[in-house]
Each structure stands twice: as C-alpha cells, then as structure tokens.
Specification:
six-stranded antiparallel sheet; 3 domains; elongated; alpha+beta; Jelly Rolls
Length: about 350
C-alpha cells in the first residue's frame, strides 16, 4: 500500500490528514534510508579484508640499527623486523627511533629528510644508475598466507622521494612461492614485475607521502613479495632535466625512496558488465554475459523501464539471450553480500 492510499483508508482521529501524510512519508523515507544504510554496512563489513603483510609499517622490530646498511648486510634480519628481509646483495635500509648505531629518524641523507608516515619506523631503497650502473635495492615481505589462484589482490604502499639527483617513477612488485635470496647480485632488472604503478607520476615533492597502488591476478601459492624498481638502465626514464651520461662515474642518476604502510589485500568482488548486446543471431554479441571476479555467490536482477523483473542471473546462469524481450534500455542490479559487491547500471538491447 502506498502512502497516499494509506492516508485515504486510515482514520486519524483528531489529526490533520495532510500533516499525517507528511509524517508517513517521512517515516517511509527514513525506513528506506535505514535499509540502504544496513545493506551498505553489510557490504562494508564484507569488504574489510585482512592485510597479508603482517608488519606493513615496520614497527615490529627487536633492535634499531639507525644508519644506512652496508652492501650485503640484511638490516631487517639484524633488527628482527618481523616478516621483512633484503632479498639480494644490495643494501636496503630500515630507519627507526632510538638506534643502537648511527642516526635517529629522520635520517639526514642529502638535502632532504622525512618522518615515517606511521609510527616510528620506515624502510628505504636506492634506485641508482650512476656510480654503479643498474644498482637497485629491494625489500621483501613474507605474506601471512599464500595467495589464492585466479583471485585479484590490491597492493598499496606509500613513498616519499629524497631526490638525490634525478627522480624515477616506476615501482613494481614480484611474487615468489618461497623466499628469494641471491646475495651475488645488486639488481633484479632481469625480472619482469608482476605489477607496476602508474609510471607517468613522478615523485617530485619531498614533503609528502604519495600512494602507490596496483592490482595483481594471482597464480596461486605465492608466499613472498619483493618491492622495488625493475627497470634496467637502458629503459629507465627520469624526470628531465637529468644527466644520465655516467661520465667519469660522477653522475648519480637516481633517487632514494622512503617506504611505509605496505598492504596487500584481496579485492572486493567486481564484475565486467557489457552495456550493449545485439541478440539477432548474427553470431556477434548475441548474448549478454558478465564476468565476475572474487565472488563465488552473486545475483543480478534485470528490470525493464516499468519496473518489472525480466530475468535474474547468478554464478550458475551468468548469461541472458534476450530473445523474448523488446529492444530498449534495461536496468540491472548486481550484488554479492558475501564478497562486498554492489554494482548497478543500464543495458541496451539492440537488434
């Protein structure tokens, strides 16, 4: 029963029906908003995924070294930094408060310095193509659980550049099934990263922390991730002007990056939904079919412009042939409460 019908059939003794109608509309609207809020709360709760990097802000340590690590020295292992290690023979750094040796945070390296984004500690790496060509530093994290096959993950961390001379833009991640260790090398530029950030964004402001984000479709059984720059000297692009001639090894073409707040989480469910299909039996785009990721249980309702339900799709029946429906625009609502998915929009059926 609508609010108007309820007004007509109810005898509100001693009340102005116009006023009561307004009150009823307010009550209905509030109930509608509450339902939306509760549904959104369910989705928000289901979106909250576990961070697979247990010590993402480098706070869980036993000792604080407090100066740049020497070549081949794993300062993360020495410090007892939970979950983190140096994968190769270069010298990634760990900056912390109350050091046993060296300086305190923030480090006075070059003309710039930075406070940690969160807490007292942060990691740092050098991306260098000057005094040692192709020299790269990386940090490695052991994940709290292995990645699931055919599942998308969202990778996020924050970076602040020290601007030693030139600024590069690429950060990449490489996943491994077991801990990667190669002390004989000082770069991993022979590897192709599994995911990279938007490399059009250079790190030019030393006063801020910039978010790095990327997604990765897992093969399954990945247990470790290595973060750093995987471009070799020939493909490296720096913000200009920047002298990368290496004359006399006097040019330090590179940058020193602080890293903090690393997280890797399973993404909420999402779907690729086509907005047009043409069921005319010509063999091209005859069927409306969606692809749903990271969600095993979902449902899509397809409704015509008069509000009538035309069909419902789910994981067992993910397609619609549209043969018994008229040309026109249809509304869809796709939801999966157990995976935090809610999408809606329009579909055009054209013959």
């Amino acid at each position: 029963m609508s609010v108007t019908e309820l007004e007509k059939t109810t005898n509100f003794k001693g009340c102005n029906t116009s006023t009561m109608g307004k009150h009823l509309r307010t009550i209905v609207l509030l109930k509608y908003l509450v339902n939306i809020l509760l549904f959104s709360l369910v989705l928000t709760m289901s979106w909250a995924q576990e961070n697979l990097v247990a010590n993402g802000s480098f706070e869980d340590i036993d000792s604080c070294y407090g100066q740049p690590a020497g070549i081949g020295f794993d300062v993360f292992e020495w410090s007892g930094c939970k979950g983190w290690s140096n994968p190769i023979g270069s010298s990634s750094d760990l900056w912390c408060q109350n050091p046993i040796i060296g300086n305190s945070v923030p480090p006075s390296l070059g003309p710039y310095w930075q406070y940690p984004k969160t807490g007292d500690n942060m990691a740092a790496i050098l991306v260098n193509d000057g005094t040692v060509q192709n020299y790269r530093e990386y940090i490695q994290s052991e994940l709290t659980s292995e990645l699931e096959a055919n599942t998308y993950y969202y990778i996020e961390f924050y970076v602040s550049g020290n601007l030693t001379s030139c600024s590069s833009s690429e950060f990449g991640v490489k996943f491994f099934p077991s801990k990667y260790t190669d002390p004989s090398t000082q770069w991993l530029t022979d590897f192709v990263p599994d995911a990279v950030n938007d490399i059009s964004n250079y790190f030019l402001d030393t006063a801020i922390w910039q978010k790095i984000e990327m997604t990765y479709l897992a093969n399954g059984s990945e247990n470790f991730v290595v973060i750093g720059n995987y471009q070799d000297s020939l493909s490296m692009t720096y913000v200009q002007p920047c002298d990368t001639s290496f004359w006399g090894n006097l040019t330090l073409a590179g940058d020193y990056f602080f890293i903090d707040d690393v997280s890797i989480k399973k993404t909420p469910g999402f779907a690729n939904v086509p907005n047009v299909f043409t069921p005319n039996n010509d063999g091209v785009n005859d069927v409306f079919e969606i692809q749903v990721f990271n969600c095993n249980s979902w449902k899509m309702d397809i409704i015509n412009r008069w509000g009538s339900l035309i069909t419902s799709l789910d994981s067992a029946h993910p397609s619609w042939d549209g043969m018994n429906s008229n040309d026109g625009v249809y509304f869809y609502k796709l939801y999966g409460e157990d995976c935090g998915m809610l999408q809606q929009g329009f579909i055009s059926l054209i013959r």
